[in-house]
Amino acid sequence: xxxxxxxxxxxxxxxxxxxxxxxxxxxxxxxxxxxxxxxxxxxxxxxxxxxxxxxxxxxxxxxxxxxxxxxxxxxxxxxxxxxxxxxxxxxxxxxxxxxxxxxxxxxxxxxxxxxxxxxxxxxxxxxxxxxxxxxxxxxxxxxxxxxxxxxxxxxxxxxxxxxxxxxxxxxxxxxxxxxxxxxxxxxxxxxxxxxxxxxxxxxxxxxxxxxxxxxxxxxxxxxxxxxxxxxxxxxxxxxxxxxxxxxxxxxxxxxxxxxxxxxxxxxxxxxxxxxxxxxxxxxxxxxxxxxxxxxxxxxxxxxxxxxxxxxxxxxxxxxxxxxxxxxxxxxxxxxxxxxxxxxxxxxxxxxxxxxxxxxxxxxxxxxxxxxxxxx
Length: 375
Fold this sequence. Notes:
The chain has 13 helices and 6 strands. It is mainly α and 375 residues long.
């Protein structure tokens, strides 16, 4: 009854922007703030994201990830935006596809656990393509918050993840100005100074690597239509490959020939492979994991389609045929450190085995080949 009174006490806003296709929730709030000439926190209150009686409201890490039924009801009353369109701008839009399935029934504790498991997405910052921001009027895409977005295939540039002026993450959650294309954060190098650098005018690194350009285009299609088992398996396999390289980069092969900016970033990472917030490191890891797939020869390109990216790339399950190795990885057999390129070897329980040890996976003693720390 009290929640119903709160909904009824909200005023319907006269100026409400139409959500941009693929836009994130925080970006839409900023568009609402600009249209009504108010700050971000005031826009959150006007739109009903904060309870009318709440004092000192600030968005939490749950904002942009999931909205409760109570919140969507208030926002619909104040803006006319349906609950479905609101949820489509949150990370739950990818739940069960790119991201883990959302808990049912939802509860604030289970929601917190779901958010904590989002290792493939960021709830508090975003990557960005400055050219896209110039063209769409400062609308930030929800896809940019995913680790799979490391470049803009349309403008052929690597995405930015930090301000070129102050070094802070882009489009961070919290109080901010209504201008979504200006940084507006405190400069860590100059105490008390606010950074006013225009994000839309920043120059990102140029993407000339055709292999990575093709990878990004395919990842974009998988992200937008990743509700099939085959699509989810491809992304899960690629994530496993990236994690293997991240945790065992000393044994991984060198970065193949690619853009100079990736070589500089790869050789300067110093062992800190936090690629979740670094699109250049993401691109470098994907280049290593898929380098054996898309090459100049037609035979290798055909192999890549079957082994790395197609929905039916895995070999058909049977008692004698283990899954194929879609992406590269180090052999997990005891005392074997051989690197297994994509399309070679096999995978057993997500562990890669080189061709020399692959025949053991169909024998009763296959489990003995894998060290206990990996099982």
